[in-house]
Amino acid sequence: MTESETKTIFLVLDSGVAIRNILRTDVFRVLKEDRRLRLVLFSPLVDDEFRREMSAPNVVIEPLPRWRPNLAVQVLRSLKKDIWAEQVGLFTFKSKRGRKEGRWLRHWLLSRVVRPGTPGRAEGWLRRIDRLEAACTPRLGTEYFERYRPGLVFFTTIYSRNHCLEIGARQRGVRTACFILSWDNPTSKGPFPFRPDRFILWNNILREELIQYHGYRDEDLFVSGVPQFDLYLDRASFLPRAEFFAKWGLDPALKLITYTTGTPGTSPFDHEVVELLDRARREGAFAMPSQLLVRLHPKDRPEDYRRFEGQPGLVLQRAGRSAPLPDQWNPTREDMYGLAELMSYSDVVINVASTITIDASVFDKPVVNVAFDGFQTHPYAESCQRYYEYEHYRRIVQTGGVQIARTAEEMVAQVNRYLRDPTLESEGRRRIRQEQCWKLDGQSGRRIAQYLISLLSERRGEG
To answer: What is the dihedral of CA 98, 103, 106, 111, to 10 degrees?
Structure first.
């Protein structure tokens, strides 16, 4: 095949989660097996180990180019966020913007821009801001577009701080496609900094949100399922339960209660909840003899948990390898299977309004959600209680598939319910799987790859 017949796709990956979801799933495997394609990977990881793992005859690896928005663009984007927040009225995003300094001044300005009964006025201002932002943005990525001449730029982080190649593609009329990395993004992070041509989505909930809140057409949205969940169907590759328990120093005769932590910004009190759980375990408060495994978020502070190290009946687990990435995480295939095994072999999973709830539900594992702030009670605006009113998580609560613990006593009582009868709320967990995962058939990665290939053959303006 001649070079002129080869079609080039840019794959722009700026985080460990993006590398996991795309490069360590069938998305990348199917794409690189198509010898009609040349894949140019733009990654913050370009070390020898990464190059060996991702190498193939039709794969080129480049360092991720960076462009930080200038002051004018930053100001315009901030203004756009405020107008959009008033226009769509989403609780999640408005509550976040409401905690910003200078809110009174922005409120006064917005009252002059967004007026009740005039939705077109806000739309007009958003279009003006987009035009101004484009005028304030230099031409980006010239070196790479001239060298490779891509037919498609595919990326995974619509809210990245380094949209160099993505915006460069828009400037040149090169088709763009974005995979929504996380289910909370469309309702929690505000307006998109620019508009990709196509979106690839986990489920139909995200499809509805992009139509309702971001003004996309249905034909520009593709529902694929969740690619990182594909391996959850590959249970033959899991470590057997006895081997998994031996690997982590767990007792196979005891029930396994798993607590997954969040970031210091979202749940800084996680170590206090762990202490409360461990105290309950040591005091025999659980209905059956149990042990506790605590899986630390990649951004969590390990020093907060040092007092638990070496304690009988409590195991600490770090997620993946640390790496110089925005999310500080390089999740390997081993770690991906490790999380699947943990969910599969846990008896109860506890977290604070986390995506882990969906992971656990895939395996029909009971979930308890923490809605108290450790040892202290904080005002609602600072409390984790508010997370259960966020649009994306409210849908989880409405399924009836989780139990919400508003006190430590409730948490222990709910764990005990599930230790006695793990089938409780199973129908709600089925709804979570159905609504959030769309299809659990192990084919999501393949669907994404095939969709990207199909986009290369479309003419601009089709679809």
So the answer is: 70
